[in-house]
Amino acid sequence: MHALVSLAARVLLSAIFVTAGINKVSGYAQTQAYMESHGLPGNLLPLVIALEVVGGLAVLLGVFSRYAGLALAAFCLAAAAVFHSNFADQAQMTNFMKNVCMAGGFLLLFANGSGRYAIRPD
Asked: Is 64 helix (H, G, I), strand (E, B) or coil?
């Protein structure tokens, strides 16, 4: 049972990052402008896309998933702080908490590993 739950968790955790990374490619200019409007250099966008897609796939497939989980946890917390810290806006507060919760899931992945159903179980 534990192995199946671990697999389901990896699928659910990875889905948002793989799709978001791919969507950033098709909306590159808009995403770059959004980053710059929050004080980040737009030339970091290729790194963001790579982290989301490669990290998300690593989590999904169970390849170096502990390290991908740790990197994505840090990314979630940074994104929450930079993009969703306007707590007067309820939507931003919800997005902040979503990112914090996802970071918690990734930290559990880091602590417990990918489980039995992984390409490279750790």
From this structure: coil
Tokens of 32: 């770059």
Closest by Cα among 87, 46, 45, 50 to 72: 50
Q: At what angle do helices 45-61 and 28-37 cross, to 10 degrees?
A: 110
Do residues 103 and 76 make contact, with C-beta atoms less than 8 angstroms apart? yes
The span from the CA of 106 to the CA of 55, in Å, is 11
Q: 81 falls in which pLDDT band (50, 70, 90)?
A: very high
Dump pLDDT digits (tens) for 21-46: 999 999 999 999 999 999 999 999 99
